[in-house]
Amino acid sequence: MNGLRARLLNSTTLVFVAIVTIIVVWIGSGVLTRGPAPEPQAPAERVPTVAASWSEAGPVTREISLYGDVEPNQIAMLRARTEGIVEEVVASGTRVTAGEAIGQLSTDDRQARLARSRAQLASAQRDYDSAMDLVEGGFVSRSEAQTRLAELEAARADLRAIELEIDNTTLRAPIDGVVNRVESELGSYVAVGGEVLQIVDNDPLIAVVHVHQAAAPRLRTGMDTRVRFIGGGQREGSIRFIAPIADATTRTFRVEVEIDNSDGALPSGLSAEVIIPTDTVDAHRVSAALIRLDAQGRIGLQTVDDENRIAFTPVDIVRARADGIWVTGLPERARIVTISQGMLSPGQIVDVRETPEDYLNTGREPR
C-alpha cells in the first residue's frame, strides 16, 4: 500500500515538473527570438487651417473728425454813451442792422444847452470879426484878435460837444444781428457805459474745435469741411483760423470753421462734429474685428505669404466707419487672414482656405 502511494506521488511530481519546464521553455523562446522594441514615434505636428481673402489697396481720403461747439460770429453789448432815461428800446428777437436806431434816451436839458451854445458861438463870432476890423485899422494889437479867436474856437467846441451828446441819446445797433436780450427796460436810468441790450450775429456761424498737435500740420486755412450738428442737419464750411500756438494745458490748437447761415435757420450754441478731409492715400478696407496686437502692443493684421506662412504686418488706421476701417502699411495687394483659431505666430505654416462665401456676404471681409 505504501509502495503504491509512493509510485503515484512520483508520477504526479514528474508530470508537474514537465509542464513547468515546457512553459518556461516556451516563454523563454519568445523573449529570445523577438527583436528590440520599436522607439516611440513623435505625433505628427498639426498644421492649423485658416481662411484668407485677397485685398487690394484703393484711394481713400484721410479725414480728421473733431467735436466742438458752434459759436456766433460776433456778440456785441450796446452801452450808453451818455446818461438818461430809456424812452424807447426794441424788443428781444428783433433783427437789426449796423447803425440802425434801436432805442432812445431822454434829452432832458440838452436842447436848452444846445440853444445856449449856439448863442455863445454867434457872440464869439461877432467879437472876433470886430477884433479883426480893429486890427486892420491899427486900433488894437494882433494879440487881442488872437484872444477873440480862441474864444470863438472854444464856443465851437462847446457846440460840437452838446450836439454829440444829443446825438448819443439815440441808441444805434453796433453790428448786424438779432437782439438777444434787453438789459435796460423802458423807464430805467442808465449811466454812461451802462448796458442797454445784447446783439448776436449768427451769420456766419463759427464751429470751434481743438485739434491734437500730431494732426495740426495737416490743416490749412481755406480747407473745405463738413459740419454735422448733434440732433440732425449738416452744412458745408471752411477753415478760417488755426491758432499759431498750442494751448499750454491741452497741447491742442484752436481751429475755427466758418459756416454760412445767411438764411438764419441755425442758432449758435449747438454741438457739432467737424469732418476735415486732408489728403488721399492708398489703403485697404477691412473689418475692425481682424485687427490684432503683437507682443510690442502694435496693432496690425495677419497675412499669408506665397509659402503659406503667417506674417504680422503693423498698420495705421486712416479712416473708421461702422461698416469697416481703412488701413495703410500693407502691400498694394495682400492676402489677409479672415478666420483663424486664436493668434498665430509669424512664420508659422498654415493650411490656407478661401473665406466662405456666406462669411464674405456679412460684409466683414477685406475689400
UniProtKB/TrEMBL annotation:
Q: Which GO terms describe its cellular component?
A: efflux pump complex
Q: Does the keyword Coiled coil apply?
A: yes
Q: Which keywords accompany this UniProt record?
A: Coiled coil, Membrane, Transmembrane, Transmembrane helix
Q: Which residues cross the membrane?
A: 12-32
Give the molecular function GO annotations: efflux transmembrane transporter activity
Domain CusB-like beta-barrel: residue ranges: 208-276
Q: Which domain of life is it from?
A: Bacteria
Task: List each coiled-coil range.
Answer: 114-172
One short Pfam name that applies is Beta-barrel_RND_2
Q: Which family does it belong to?
A: Belongs to the membrane fusion protein (MFP) (TC 8.A.1) family.
Family matches, as NCBIfam families: RND_mfp
The name of this protein is: Membrane fusion protein, multidrug efflux system
Origin species: Aquisalimonas asiatica
